[in-house]
Amino acid sequence: MAVRNLTSAHASAAPRTRRPANIWQQIWRMRLIYLFLLPAFVLFVIFEYWPTFLVFREAFYDWDGFRINNFIGLANFQEILHDPTFRQSLKNILIILVFYLTIPFAMPIIIAETVFNLASERAQKFWRVFLLIPAIIPFLVILLLWQYLYNPVPGEGFLNNVLQHFGQQPKLWLASPNTSLWSYMLIEFPWASGTYMLIYLAGLQNIPQDVVDASRLDGASTWTRIFRIDMPLIMGQIKLIAILTVIQTLQRYVGIYILTNGEGGPANSTMVPGVYLFQKAFNAHRLGYACAVGLVMFLFILALTLINQFLIKSESDAQEQGIV
Amino acid sequence: MDQRTAAEAITRKLTATRYTRRRLLGMTAAGAGSAILAACGGSSATSTPAPTSTGGAKVIVSTSTAAAAAPTTAPSAASAGGTSPAGSAGAPTTAAAVSPTIAVTRAELKGKVTIARQPASPLSNGKDDPGNIVFQQLIDRYQKEHPGVTMEWTRVPGSSFDDLYQWVITRQSAKSVPGIVGSHTFTTSSQEATNTSPWVDLSPYLEKSSAYTSKPWKADFPEDTLVYMRESKKDLYSVTFTAYKAAWLYNKNLWTKAGLTEADEPKTWGQFFTVLDKLKASGTIPIARTGDAFALSHAYWIIANSVGHKDWLAMSGGKTFADDKTRFTALCTGKWKMDTPWNRKTAEVTKRLFQYWPPGSTSLTAANVEQLFLTQKAALWQGTPGNQGQTILRRVDEAKAEGLESFAVGAFPTPQPDAETFGADIAANAAPLADDGERGLEYGIPIPDLRQDKDAGVEAIAVDWLQWMTTPEIQAIQVKPTYDLPINPSVKLDDPRLQLFYKSKTQLFPSWWFYGNRPTWIGNFQAYLLNKKDLDTYIKDEQAELMDYTQQQIRQSKLNIPCG
Q1: A77-136+192-320 architecture in CATH?
Q2: Are strands B149-155 and B239-240 parallel, antiparallel or unpaired?
Q3: Using beta carbons and an 8 Å cutoff, which residues of B are at the interface with A?
Q4: pLDDT 10s digits, B382-427
Q5: CA distance readout (Å), B463 to A118, A199, B293, B394, B448
Q6: What ipTM goes with this model?
Q7: Would the pTM of this model clear 0.80, i.e. be above it?
Q8: Mutation for A interface: B290, B362, B547, most A CBs within 10 A
Q9: The domain B247-324+336-435+508-514: what is its CATH number?
Q10: CATH topology match: B59-244+440-486 vs B247-324+336-435+508-514
Q11: What is Dmax (Cα atoms) for chain A?
């Protein structure tokens, strides 16, 4: 009896344990939330995932977008391997990517550091706004402006007029295979992306002040502070922008399409996979092949993104190394 | 808080607002930004005269045809509903005196038909192109004359052939093609052979009498035009309202400045290069032309069709047109190849001609080169008087009418191959070179399965409208403001500058390797033009690219031809 009593007393004193809910029970409990998410999810599936799935599928088909849709296996990919225009486009986009991972990548950091280190807070605010203004101008306007600047006809283009004023020979800019790629890369000069600059600036402003103060007390110069403290602590932002740069650069096509009137430049000198894909899809009416090009580029971008993740260490890694 | 208190509070706040430097700076920036936006809006200033309609070209309708078409029924709404295009007041035409009134109305036609056509781009002053205006007026008139019919013009977006083709293909995929479509690409010989044409066969209608002329409808078209449009097919699946005839127009001021006269209008390529050298030496850009796929392939193609004609006839069994199967088989068996003396010479001559185009022409648009010609920086312009949106003559005339700086123009056809330029063998075997051979915009009727307009009488209305549009009276109205060359042989434009175009007979030759079928050709050819490739490499790559294209075409058309 005592044992029984003890047992029952123990039983009454111990907390009741609930059986963990299974997934369906959890969903049922959160049903209102899922209901609100459902429309967005459906639209996302229809307009994002379904077209992506179609691209993956049609890459294995000979599809003209109209009546012809025959399964051809890996034939599109085999053709891509031997396609000289695709190879040229890949070469061009890699050159552009390497360039955009150097000066255009460094400029927002340099500008953010400069703005961050301004003594006057009012000056900081002014430059933040001033540097962001170009970001709100439609990119098409900028492209058309550069088309005018680059006009190769004597007396028509601004840049050639300036060159001739200084006794230099006019250049063909976008119209010559020798200068077209560099001319294209120049159009975002000085590559002071206001958006990226703000991201870096936010990162710099989040650095704990006591870390900065401690570095000063230890006699660290400004340059030392920038490279040994600021850079490691904004590595998360650097990684993010590196990934965005890779993705956006490899997907580029609007600017080149407009500047080259859809032809990819003289002798394909500014042809990039995005423009080539568009040409194949809508000029040559080979949507299956275009899907294959898209799939190849997707895998390429994915590989580069993973490499990027591996190579660039973020703040948490900096903490482990004892920097912060 | 009552109203009075609230008003007082607001007033206090407003009057208490101090205008600091920051606020003033912000207001100044806002004002400057608004001013910039306002300045950027509206029409842009150009150095060319803003064209307004001068009333268009003079039109003559031959009296014999007009008499034959005189209606037997009493004039009805047709004459009351007759409209004239914008700006035509004050432009006398012979057509007005002898034009037959189309008094035939067909009450049995009932239903709605949608017409798809790409409109011409607006004028540089922002106004609608006169061709668009007159097209809509004609649609309105047709509806007045046929009260049971409703017609609607769907303006296809974009301005290029590719835009138009993509739009049509998309509509075909969705099975919602308008009842009448203006396009450049219709049924292929493979589609006809496999009975998969998406367009209605119009040949039976062409053989029957037109309701408006009491003659077979085909009498509204020159015989050689119908032959050209049919090519290697058995039947016709579209008709056109305009003739495509091109020539080289030149600025007489710049011509004279270079020491040239009318007698120097070249007949051969050797003479042509001499003229071009003189123009270049006088400081003028000799030719206003783009270095894009369209212009380069056109220049290449008309030469190739001439100098390669003998080999073509050998390949096609003596026929001017060869169907897909014949062409593809010839290519796949090696009977036809691109490494030939005549194709090499075509590439060389085109490259030589390219040296006279504007610097950086590969990055210029048609609008850019038109400006070069209109502002008298370039001496020569190649094209049609008005077809497919080309408006050079109209702009020249409008500038004159407004008292703006303008110039007189002359014209000559593309020169003929000569031994000096092409070599004796090639020149001897060349067919006469013609500028034309492209087709103007054509109109077709989609098959019922693909149609957006589901009324039972759509096809009858569509055919009736097409017949109405090719009658002399309506043709005269159409072409007057646009300088298009009418397709009906009874209608002519009375302009000495256009006599050359009328003399240019439609040369029958096939558009077999036109770039439009092979968009990858241009990159290869530009590399050769810009010295990135030598001729041997270009020819070799062209052959490879053509084989790829052919293999794809064979696959898609399901022709059983072993190839590669």
Answers
A1: Orthogonal Bundle (1.10)
A2: unpaired
A3: 162, 165-166, 169-170, 172-173, 196, 285, 291-293, 358-365, 368, 372, 377, 519-520, 522-523, 526-527, 529-530, 532-533, 541, 548, 552, 555-556
A4: 887 765 555 677 777 777 777 777 788 888 888 999 999 999 999 9
A5: 76, 63, 35, 31, 14
A6: 0.79
A7: no
A8: B362
A9: 3.40.190.10
A10: yes
A11: 114
